[in-house]
Amino acid sequence: MSVYDQVAFINGSYYTFIDSEWSKTGIAVPGFTGSEIIGDQLVINYDSDFDILRNGLTPFLNFTNVDSDGNAITWSSSIVYGDGVNVGNTKFADISIVGSSPQFSIVPTKDPDEHYKSNIVRFQTSGLPSFSMRDSADQENYDDQSALTVDILFSYGAAHIISDHIKGYSLVTIGSPLVNFFNNSSISPFGDNQGLHFNSNGTRLFVNNNLKINQYDLTVPYDTLTMSNVKSYTPHLNDGTGLTDLTFNDSGNKMYLVNNSGNKIHEYDVDTPFDITTAIKRDNILTQTNMDKDIVIVDNGSKLITKTGSTVVAHDLEENYNISTWNNTETSSKSLTTLTYRVTENRYPSAYERRYSGVYYFRQTYYSGGYRTRWVSQWDHSSTAKSYCFSSNGQYIFWVTGLASYFGRVYRQSLTTPWDITSATSTQTRNHTIGKATSDTFERNDKNNGVQCIRISPDGLKLFLLDTYTHSIFQHNMTTAYSLSSIGSNIRELDKAIEPNGGYEVKFTYSEIPNPTPSSSYTDTSNVRNFSFNSGGTKLYITNDNDVYEYNLIAPFDLNSVTYVTSYSIFSSDISVDGGIFIGDSDQRIYAYGSNFIRQYNLDSNLSTISDPFKSKELVVTAEDNQPTGIYFNNSGSTLYMCGTQTNNVFKYTLTDKDKIYSASFDSAYSTPSLITNLSGIVTNKNEDKMYLLSDRLVAEININSQFSTSTDPGVSYTTVKGNSANRGIRWNNDGSQFIIAGNSTLETYKTDNPYRVIPI
Q1: Domain map (residue ranges) of the chain
Q2: Which of 177, 211, 582, 697 has the fewest Cβ atoms within 10 Å of its own Cβ atom?
Q3: What does the alpha-carbon distance between residue 306 and residue 649 come to, in Å, rounded to a whole number?
Q4: Structural element, H or E, at residue 248
Q5: Element (H, E) at 727
Q6: Whole-number CA gyration radius for the chain
Q7: pLDDT at 154
Q8: How confident is residue 83, by pLDDT bands cut at 50, 70 and 90?
Q9: How confident is the model over 248-287, as pLDDT tens digits?
Q10: pLDDT digits (tens, 9 = 90+) for 678-703
Q11: What would the 3-class secondary structure string for 301-361 be?
Q12: CB neighbours of 512 closer than 8 A, spacing ≥ 6?
């Protein structure tokens, strides 16, 4: 007689009359169409439109772990692959078993193509447990077994128990967990997912890896299987080298990125809410390695041009004159010619000279009343481009080298397309002798004791060269605009009255300008390497490694009459300073730069009114955790939660100015329970009385109380059933009915029957 002769279905559970009592022997999904007994098996039927992704069954099993004698029962699991099932054309479900004795879960793949398939999972004791038996025959048959076996026949709509002995039915409790795996969505174009966030209604999803952010549109809110229309965004400069999580404010016009390589949380403006293609980090500093001592902002503020070595590189600015909005990918580049000059002497080099690697010597045959030989020595002298500038109309680029042996060179190239450095052609040059010449023929160093900066007046009639050797700025007038040939044959550091063919009109010795107080004096004139004019030429700004000095000019762009105004310490100790300044945006901004940074300031009238156009839009969290991994704002934006793997703790910050990350101050910390070993994500519920912590495959639910800093509430936890241990980010949908986890190249979605609850059953 079949054990299923008397079966009842109540509230989604099957009950069978076994051993003189009703026992729960199976569960089914809501809306099944019926059941039938085929052979000794109970077969569940359900509608062909059954949505396996949303309603498929994930049974939870609890086995008895102690026999009647008090001995432990250890259960093992295995997938039978249909052994004992022969109903038509058998199809085996793709499933996995999660857990260990005495608790297990049967987890299906939730592949829509598998909704009609089934399988058998076998659970077996390690030995034969002892149980009191009423029937001696049953007891005898039981004693002949080596182990007790309980099978679970699984299909996507139902699961029921099959045991090799009547007592087996009493050893297992079957049910459906309140938290169920929902679906698994692949993420492209990149993997190594670190964090995720939804917009306010769940129709847009943001996922980041450690370098960039992807944005997806969802046709069904919070359903990651409906993602489409991917857009990518690369964060500002070095902000995107170690991204571990992201979040937005509630209005979507602010985005926040946590970077564990810099231990900072960065703030971005999002001009179109929840659209990362409009994200901009408006900040007063741009950091980039290997920038030299010259920058220019041209073409009405749309292009930033920097120099590295002898190469100038152009970058587009998304917002005119705002350096923080540059495109980190260069749009064009150009190599500036290096001056090389070969010195030749008819002699054999000395032992001292031969120590220098650049010497080349050989025996030469020549005729002088007969054939003779002599030693010839050659040394190559070179100098790279020290500085460059553009004409005011963008039709010319100028640059200057230092001295190569005893002369340097000024270059001019025409730009067939204004401001386009790749369109340079038609070179014009003039040699110069400004600086300290090489004293020995064999020295081939690229000298820095000479010209370090070149500027051209807007009308193209004045050429300015700053010389670090004489601590002077030379002014050479051109009779034809932008024409080097109109200066003379050789640009000299001599007065034009002495040298009319290339001498200077004005020599401004900046070290001789009196300053009102000792504190304003030049700390080291040798460090003065750069200068700039305002747009009208009525002000001159000179920099050393510490300060900017401001001067008034009576006649525009004329160094005949210069008066000192003030100085300003524009550099801070946290940046390496070896650069200069640039005046842009109609004299409203000043840019100070070195080898690794550009910092911009407002310049309303003079240096005394200098100010930061933007606050530093970042929060440094090193003091709390130097490996931050997760961030989340509460609904009002007044509280920020951050977690990290260094401490495995949660940190709470209070913002005095909503949505401004730099207004955050540390409030308190929560020491997580011992089950948290690799804290990688955090989120709270809407009421902010619970927080959910992601630790590898564990999601812990923690009650938030008034003693946040000292709470020891261990909470409850749920072990995720899919993927692997590389889970990194977690978010809820808007009603708390499901949570989504990012990890590796997938997104895992879980449903919960109780809103905002993460519990095993």
Answers
A1: 7-176, 184-283+618-752, 300-333+527-609, 342-380
A2: 211
A3: 43
A4: strand 243-248
A5: strand 727-732
A6: 39
A7: 87
A8: very low
A9: 999 999 999 998 888 899 999 999 999 999 998 888 888 7
A10: 899 999 998 888 999 998 778 988 88
A11: CCEEEEEECCEEEEEEECCCCCHHHECCCCCEEEECCCEEEEEEECCCCCHHHHCCCCEEE
A12: none
Residue 657 has which token pair?
């100015």
Q: Residue type for 378, please?
A: Q
The superfamily (CATH) of domain 184-283+618-752 is: YVTN repeat-like/Quinoprotein amine dehydrogenase (2.130.10.10)
90-95 long-range Cβ contacts below 8 angstroms, 24+ apart: 90/118, 91/116, 91/117, 91/118, 92/117, 92/118, 92/119, 93/117, 93/118, 93/119, 93/154, 93/155, 93/156, 95/119, 95/121, 95/154
Q: 349 or 308: which carries more pLDDT confidence?
A: 349
Calculate the CA dihedral of residues 552, 556, 557, 563 and round it to 10 degrees.
Answer: -20
Residue 23 CA to residue 16 CA, distance in Å, equals 5
In 3D space, the residue among 256, 252, 207 whose CA is nearest the CA of residue 227 turns out to be 207
Sign of CA dihedral 286, 322, 538, 501: positive
Instruction: Give the residue carrying structure tokens 């300008």.
Output: 513
Tell me which residue has tokens 């680029």: 397
Phi, psi angle pair for 27, to nearest 5°: -135, 155
Q: Note the pLDDT of residue 571.
A: 62
Rounded distance between C-alpha atoms, residue 83 and residue 363, angstroms: 95
Q: How far apart are CA 165 and CA 142, in angstroms?
A: 7
DSSP secondary structure letter of residue 72: B
Distance CA 210, CA 191 (A): 10
The whole model's pTM is what?
A: 0.68
